[in-house]
Design a protein that fits this description.
This protein is mainly alpha-helical and 122 residues long. The protein has one domain. It contains four helices and no strands. The longest helix is centred in the N-terminal third of the chain and has 29 residues. The termini are far apart.
Length: 122
């Protein structure tokens, strides 16, 4: 691989950091939108992550009990080894999964806190 002469190691590291910051801003904005539109779904997604620590497609649980059973009934899902296609689940279930995925991608210390909308540049 030939390196571009203007691309130093520190320049590449800055680019990586900028990309990571943009991704995190996007996650925060999407989650903020969900929280304003469907706060109960986001609250349920947070509760799911508190109980399980990972998305439902990253664990296998044959007989959920208690709150987990309530959430699986409410959103009509099983613990699969992959996230179902949005076309194959009800809209509320897809939004529940989206909220779980976004929350899971946030840094751990932000997962439980209400999401503040990131500034939108025009």
């Amino acid at each position: 691989m030939t390196d571009h002469p203007k691309r130093t190691e520190s320049g590449l590291e800055r680019l990586q950091a900028e990309l990571a910051a943009l991704k995190l801003d996007s996650i925060r904005q999407r989650l903020a939108l969900l929280e304003t539109q469907v706060p109960q779904i986001v609250a349920d997604a947070r509760r799911f992550l508190v109980l399980e620590h990972v998305p439902p497609w990253e664990t296998v649980l044959l007989f959920p009990e208690g709150e987990l059973a309530s959430l699986t009934d409410r959103y009509d899902f099983d613990f699969l080894r992959r996230r179902p296609d949005p076309q194959q689940v009800a809209p509320a279930t897809d939004l529940f999964f989206e909220a779980i995925e976004l929350l899971y991608e946030l840094p751990r210390d932000e997962q439980d806190a209400p999401v503040k909308p990131a500034p939108v540049e025009h």
